[in-house]
Predict the 3D structure of the following.
Amino acid sequence: MARPSTLEATTYLTTSDVMRLLGLARPQIKKRLKSGVFPPPTITNEHGVRFFDQVWLEKANLVLLCEQKKITPFELAARMKELEVEQLKLEEINERPR
C-alpha cells in the first residue's frame, strides 16, 4: 500500500484514526461508506486510500447518534430547523422595547 503524502498525513484522518475515534471496526466503516450512510471520504487519493477531515468526523458522529436514538438524519434535521425557528422567535421577543 502506498504511503500518504505529508499533507495528507498531517491534515486528514486515516481510516485507522476514524476507527479509533468512532469506536467502529474497518468493515463497519466500509459498509456505511458503501451504502451511503456515511458521507463519502473527504479525499480518496490516486491509490484509493481514504482520508477524512474534522467536518466529516462530526457528520459521522451525528449519523451514529441518530442510529443510537433510532431517528433518521432527516428527522434530526427537521428538529434542528424547528429549534432554529424557536431561537429566532425568542431573539425577536428579547429585542422588542419594553
